[in-house]
Amino acid sequence: MKKSVIALSIAASVPMFSNNVQAQDAVKPIEKIEVTGSKIKRSDMETASPVTIIGAEDIKASGAVTVDDILQDMTAAGGAMTNPGVNNGSGGNASINLRGMGAQRTLVLVNGRRMINSGTGAASTVDLNTIPVSMIKYVEVLKDGASAVYGTDAVAGVVNIILKDDFEGAELNVQTGLSGEGDAQRNSIDLTVGNSFDKGNMVFSLQYMDRGEASQADRDFSKCPITENADGTELLCGGSSITPNGHLYLENGKELQGSPDGAYSEYNPESDPYNYSEDSYLYTPMQSLNLTGVVNYELSDNTTLFTEALYTKRWSEQQMAPQPVWFDFNYTEEMGDDLLEHGAEYGDTVHYRRRMSDTGTRDFSQVVDTLRTVVGLEGVLANDYNWDVALNFGRNDSVDKLSNLHNVGSLTEDIENGVFNPLDQASWSAENMSDYIYTEQNTGGSQMLNLSASLSGELLELPAGYVGFATGIESRTEKAWYTPDSLTSQGLANDPKVEPTSGSYDVNEAFLELAVPVLTDLPFAQQVDLSAAVRAFDYSSFGSDSTWKLGFTWKVNDEFMFRGVRSTAFRAPTVDELYGGNSPSFQQISHALLDSQAEVTVGGNDQLTPEEADTLTAGLVYEPQWLQGLSMTLDYYDIAISNAIGSVDNQFIVDSCIDSSGQQKNQDSAVCQSANVQVSNGKATFNNQLQNIGEEITRGVDLNLLYKFDAMGYDWSAGLDTSFLHERIVTNAGETIDYTGLITSSTGGYADIKSNLTLAVKSNNWSANYKIRYISGMDSYACVSEPASCYAPSTPSVMYHDLSGSYFINQSVKVSAGINNLFDEQPPYYTGNNDSNTDPYTYDTLGRYFFAGVNVAF
């Protein structure tokens, strides 16, 4: 039987291709396996849906020590993906976002079963930091909707991480890395041991990783917040209007800036803004410890006990500029006469802002514990039906802290009582402020209990082959919680009060899947198969519904195969989306007269209903006989989501509801009424809670070329993996935005073309890999309406070059080294950027990075 290109090829998004699996398959009997996207075991990997396979050796060759390092480089990934380069709001998490449809619409599995939502607070997505690279056997990425097979969340695709379960011996890996600027050092060590015995096998792994930080101040492109002059013709080193020594707004319209000597002068918007980049991380530090074990034990000839246990502890940090505080007070004689010369009068209201550089930076830290255990039985019945029952339990607990905050409630009270004089610079000294400083501590977590049972096999024989089936039931309970700090929950801190989150739901599901052979061994129809799946579900939070899938594979001959899938998908609102308490979030906006950070209230909505989606994929697989080793896949995808859960783009709210003079407009529109926009003293405040208000559409084409050949006595692999985005349309509250080819300030970029070109060569004792990552240029969303007013209304195309290699010193020791971003490509600046004057969701912010490691097998 000729193996499929999907079975043999490793996606061109990774820099090396493993060949040892083929050699082993040649001497082993063909076995039936389960491929991501189907629960029917089969003897080949030809399915109706496109599946990318990433091998463990390919991950190591890239220098990746966390799963997101490799997944986020895939051309099918885009939009907002949290990673170490995201300092503001990441919480130390890492995520994967297939098709740029949102991380919450990509389902993450481990060994075909759900991974617990993890991270900080009442997490809604999987933190990829919880999954150890050392235990990965391979990763399957299904780029298709699969709700009929897996249930909720599998809208844009599925990432299935397969753990090692047949490893024998012991293996030690040690790796270190360092940026070209001498920072962001990354050290990792892992030990994996395994053994097979008469009744089964066991594998255990220990992995530790320590990642250092880099500062925005240490890169030319991010050393200060870049602003543009009024007509967008010049770049200036700007910052925040909330400054050290105090920024005052008087009733007569004057703005004053304090100085260390206690004097006040008129605020100069060109020279007085505060450079918050100097105190912000460009790359965030983290430590993680992981323990993983997989054990299989044969209870009888036909029954096996399987267990999986995974525990990860994460310590992560972020650092931002000192806290901005603001309050109003009445100017009294006891405060001195410094303001009188500027036209103020006693009794006037003074609007006061201050950057608390007196007491230091805001230091964020998280300690997160994630546990996942699976215990089950599987076996074969007398009629060769496969069965399994399993219990999948997961729990995530987090404690996140924010230090160097100030109790503005107490501070305001002392000002009113005449105990604290805000106009006296000595009052703000670190010693005097010690009674007002506190550390915010929040706790959160999530828990999942999933009971499942399934049966699969061959129902009957047709002229073209056997009809395969899989059926099963699942019962899942999920709960999540978040308890904010007591001061924060009471609104006694500087920010508005943050409400707690608490809630749960349960769901019962049943599914049926069929694989039907229709034709075989006919002219122009070597094999034609149909597939179908249906899943019914009943949620306690919203009720019952169902989803379905229909697919086909038409293998014309040994060279051509056509495939396609039409399906419906859904995503149930998570506990956080349903019951998340309202909380403030400071988001980047662009407005000539307003502060660059707006105070946006976000939160859940218990009236949310599920998102629904219609998905279509259709493709061609081509393996020409005239050139052995060459293969090509070409797949079209179309995902249309209705009833989408989301919030309106923050910049869209600003553009729709605030005019050029900083005044409210369009207050009768649905968007502005819901947002309740307020503008006060140069600062915008509005609401942006979750709603079922949208529709989202994405369409495009994936092209994969792979050529494996022998030359000069070596094994070669050349691959090209390219994604062409044709449409990325979002409709919220009746307003439609086409994000195709745009880059935003909050949701990342949607490049028209993303492409990875790889070349790998391998001998008996060494290998080398070269990879080019290409991202096409994009237009800034903030400049779409008036590009002439922006200094950088678009980004150029960006190309990264990665080089790596390994050498076997002997049969037991292998050394590896590499350079990512070989030519030190700098991230582009664009008007309306996200952070660090660029987009850390999309671009590499570290620059050239070196890594080296050693592998010792015992």
TrEMBL record:
Instruction: Please list the residue ranges annotated as the TonB-dependent receptor-like beta-barrel domain.
Output: 361-822
> Where is motif TonB C-terminal box found?
841-858
Q: How does the record classify its membrane topology?
A: Multi-pass membrane protein
Q: Which Pfam families match?
A: Plug, TonB_dep_Rec_b-barrel
The superkingdom of the source organism is: Bacteria
Give the similarity note: Belongs to the TonB-dependent receptor family.
- What name is this protein filed under? TonB-dependent receptor
